[in-house]
Amino acid sequence: MKVIDVKELKRKLDAREDFLFIDVREPHEFSEFNLGATLIPLGEIPEAISDMKDKKDTEIILHCRSGARSGRAAMFMEAEGFSNVTNVEGGVLAWQEAYGG
User: In this structure, what are the phi and psi dihedrals at residue 83, rounded to the nearest 5 degrees?
Assistant: First the structure.
């Protein structure tokens, strides 16, 4: 599984690079603080990716609170044939430590 740190994520967001950005936390966590990603809670990933078959080669960056749930989602997506999935190391906690929020 590929990983990036929050500094690389920030660089990609600031550069407006083209990638699919997914937050796998729960709705209450997302409403408290989010980075502008699309919310797809971890438990909904299997159903959601069935509608994303045309995005199997798209760059997908996943994040959560600490990187654990998004890591599980990344491994699941890779097992389902998604070839360009990256996990944000440390998740929102690392982002808040580096940039506040």
Answer: -100, -10
